[in-house]
Write a structure and sequence with these properties.
Elements lengths: L5 E5 L1 E2 L8 E2 L1 H13 L3 E2 L2 H5 L5 E7 L6 H9 L4 E5 L1 H4 L26 H9 L3 E4 L12 H19 L5 E3 L7 H9 L4 E3 L16 E2 L6 H7 L4 H14 L1
Parallel strand pairs: 1-5, 1-10, 2-3, 4-5, 5-6, 6-7, 8-9
Length: 244
């Protein structure tokens, strides 16, 4: 069965940070409007997991503070969103310090700030769901059993404690997962977990496919990514990686 819902995965939202992860606010709004004009129906994360055809959900990994610049447009368009936050960075609204960004830091260091717990509480009051992106944005398949359990369980518990609402959803950092990680996510109490490219085979609620959207995605590329061809293309890419 083909996954029918289109789930977009964004990261930072910035017009000034020239980084692959940073989509301009106007560009993001135009992309979502394009999908609505093509007949996609906005749904919550729960609606996306119901696997209905031509439904749309928007997600943001990492909980960059600058994502707030896109939430107003999504609210006006009545497009629900989920933000996946790292519990360790949310403690003080700290900079998102991961090795992959070390040589790509923007001139304005504030671009790397995470939403704080207060900021996350504010967005939930406007209907945005907050899920887990682990504690520290770790490479989950590389972790030992105890570290893996801690990253998954502690992040969920801290989010629930701070926001006073269930944390049902997980997004894997870097989109990385394997059989062991997916089993650990289920054991940690999540309802579902979001990936990027799907693994070959049947739909797995602990590897829900999303389409990653990046700064370099020109209109033609975004259109291609969000057509019916997207899943065969992503499945082929995943199959090639599994053989590498």
């Amino acid at each position: 069965m083909r996954f029918g819902s289109l789930v977009l995965c964004y990261h930072a939202v910035s017009d000034t940070w020239d980084d692959p992860l940073a989509t301009g606010a106007a560009t993001l709004e135009a992309q979502v409007k394009l999908l609505l004009s093509r007949g996609y129906r906005p749904v919550s994360a729960e609606g996306a997991l119901a696997n209905r055809q031509r439904t749309l959900h928007v997600t943001f990994d990492d909980a960059f503070r600058n994502v707030a610049g896109a939430l107003g447009a999504l609210e006006r368009l009545r497009v629900p969103a989920t933000i996946f936050a790292c519990a360790g960075f949310a403690e003080d609204g700290a900079h998102i310090r991961v090795a992959e960004l070390r040589d790509r830091a923007p001139a304005n260091d504030d671009e790397l700030l995470s939403m704080s717990w207060d900021a996350l509480r504010e967005v939930t009051a406007h209907g945005v769901e907050v899920g887990s992106h682990t504690v520290s944005h770790a490479h989950l398949p590389a972790l030992g059993e105890e570290e893996l359990r801690r990253e998954l369980r502690e992040s969920r518990e801290r989010i629930e404690d701070q926001l006073r609402r269930p944390c049902r959803l997980l997004a894997y950092p870097y989109g990385q997962h394997d059989v062991r990680v997916r089993a650990a996510a289920r054991a940690a109490g999540y309802t579902a977990a979001f990936a990027l490219d799907p693994p070959p085979g049947a739909i797995d609620p602990w590897a829900v496919p999303r389409v990653g959207v990046y700064r370099a995605d020109a209109p033609w590329r975004f259109t291609l990514k969000t057509t019916r061809l997207r899943q065969p293309i992503m499945a082929a890419r995943a199959a090639r990686r599994s053989k590498a």
